[in-house]
Every structure is written in structure tokens, then in C-alpha cells.
Design brief:
There is one protein chain. Helix content is about 75%, strand content about 0%. With about 80 residues, the chain is an all-alpha fold. It has one domain.
């Protein structure tokens, strides 16, 4: 997700500015809740070189990563 945002916007700050959110919101999408980014899907797809399919794929993969990481961390405790 981090690389995808960088590819589309260059920086998290630029992403936040273009979408009218805070950098903390963008960080939240990366670290906790990637699905929340989909509120901005129409705008992202319209203005960036990506498709809705690519966007949803990135979001779902990041959710999978977060779920797996959370499960691994719980096993370590």
C-alpha cells in the first residue's frame, strides 16, 4: 500500500493534500484500515493512472498483510 501510494502521488503528504485528508489519515490507511481509502476511489481512479480493480486489489492485499502480521504477533506473545 505504501509503495502504491508513492507510485500514484509521490509522497503520503501529496496524497493527503490531493484527497483533502490529513497525513495521519493516509498513515491510518497504511497501518490499520486500508479499506477506508475506498471512499476516495472515484477520485483516485479519475485522476491517477490506476483502475478500480488495481486499487481494490491493493486494499485487499494490505488487509491480508495486516491480518497475517497480527496473527504472527499474537503467536509470538
Amino acid at each position: 500500500m505504501k509503495a502504491y501510494i508513492k507510485k500514484l502521488y509521490g509522497t503520503q503528504k501529496a496524497c493527503a493534500t490531493e484527497l483533502g485528508v490529513t497525513t495521519a489519515t493516509v498513515q491510518n490507511w497504511i497501518k490499520k484500515n486500508p479499506r477506508a481509502m475506498l471512499v476516495h476511489a472515484p477520485e483516485i481512479v479519475r485522476h491517477k493512472d490506476t483502475t478500480f480493480t488495481q486499487l481494490i486489489g491493493e486494499v485487499l492485499f494490505r488487509e491480508y498483510e495486516l491480518t497475517e502480521l497480527d496473527a504472527i504477533r499474537k503467536d509470538e506473545v
